[in-house]
Amino acid sequence: MANFAKSHAPQFSMDVYQNEYLPEGGREVNAIVTVTATGGGTIGSAVPPAHPQGSGPSAAVALMVDCSGSMDYPPTKMRGAREATAAATDTLRDGTHFAVIGGTHVASEVYPGGGRLAVADAGTREQAKQALRRLSAGGGTAIGTWLRLADRLLNAADVTIRHGILLTDGRNEHESPEDLKATLQACAGRFTCDARGVGTDWEVKEVTGIASALLGTADIVADPAGLTADFARMMEAAMGKEVADVALRVWTPVGTAIRFIKQVAPAVEDLTARRTEAGPRAGDYPTGSWGDESRDYHLCLEVPPAGLGQEMLAARVSLVVPQADGSVHNLGTQGLVRAVWTDDMTASTSISPQVAHYTGQAELAQAIQQGLDLRKAGDFDGATAKLGRAVQLASASGNADTAKLLAKVVDVVDAATGTVRLKAKVAEADEMTLETRSTKTVRVKK
Fold first, then answer.
1. pLDDT given at position 56
2. Residues facing 73 on adjacent strands
3. What are the backbone dihedrals phi and psi of residue 111, each rounded to the nearest 5 degrees, phi first?
């Protein structure tokens, strides 16, 4: 749990978008909650700033680099990984605690070693780069061991922000899926982690599953030449985080149930099962670390039916940071979700534009995943139908990036109706890119 450092805190605000009107007997309430943090962080700057010590919250970062034998095929992968990790260390703020971990079927401390973290300055950055030059490929892949070493190192430091960056080029073949799952459960809430797959020999669901469990980002870097820029961006984003362990606290009255709560922008992430109880009728949903940024959440509730003209507070949403001593720091903003029963059919049947948009974005992500799974299973008719629906949704919502990725997997005959043909040949990198980025969404048009 984080100790909340007020001096580094951005200001949080919250907006609720919903149609609060229900028909007689109506029970489902939907709302989009937009959370915005401003006045902290560095995300969005074109060039990483030179961070003097003390200019941001205390942070610790573990860089986990795949050193398995496959990283030598082609040799550009290992070279790209070394250069990318060196670039990431250049982006570290002075005073940041950091370590480099080499990952094979075991995890080894590349720098500084001895079960400790280095403190970033010109000297330690140079020492880390010297250590990186000695990295060579050989051995298998057991990602859980890398994450457990990162967890031990990061949590030995008395810092506010704990973050991992993980690079792999292969499948997690030297430990069972159950072992990796147990590791992710043990590490969840202890540090956040961005995961990247380089090349095309890794498993998308493994890499996205790691990032999802540890509230980070996942992406593909098909060409090793793109690693350096990607690692520098990831580290810049990590250095821009100002507040860790932020939770959405949702209070609901007696008789009201939470059907689901999902992050819907900048990517779809279902938080429903991650609830921890927080007192009478309240639960906390983890959102990870924040800098200067804005995110949207879809809250779907089931309320007890009520008569015409009645109204109720269906939910109260606030932001809290749990503290090590069991208390919480309230970030001082809240949103109210209401329900009002009416016989005005126009009012009760209109859908909030924000709710409609993000319902479509969630369906888009699901349609892509299902379509690609059906394609791999040989059900080409089913795949065509699902990917056609995805094209239709991407076109209607203005999600141009996803539309471009879909066009590399299907020939689009008519985007508006979702009429497509599966391409006979699809580059593996294009299919993996579409799958990895399928959950990325666009904000609702204002």
1. 67
2. none
3. -160, 140
- Closest among 432, 430, 429, 437 to 400, alpha carbons compared: 437
Helix (H) or strand (E) holding 317: strand 311-322
Distance CA 336, CA 313 (A): 7
Beta strands (DSSP E) in 126-256 are 161-168, 192-198, 218-221, 243-251
Neighbours of 408 (CB within 10 A): 14
Side chain identity at residue 80, one-letter code: G
User: How is residue 9 written in tokens?
Assistant: 């805190």
Residue 215 predicted with pLDDT over 50: yes
Kindly report the three-state secondary structure assignment for every residue of 257-291: EEEEEEEEECECEECHHHCEECCCCEEEEEEEEEC
pTM above 0.90, yes or no: yes
DSSP 283-314: EEEEEEEESSEEEEEEEEEE-----TT-EEEE
With contact defined as beta carbons under 8 Å apart, do 89 and 97 qualify?
A: no
Is the model's pLDDT at 309 over the cut of 80? yes
Q: What are phi and psi of 265, to 5 degrees?
A: -155, 135
Task: Give, to the nearest 10 degrees, the angle between helix 143-154 and helix 204-213.
Answer: 20
Contact 56, 45 (CB under 8 A): no
List the structure tokens of 393.
């949704």
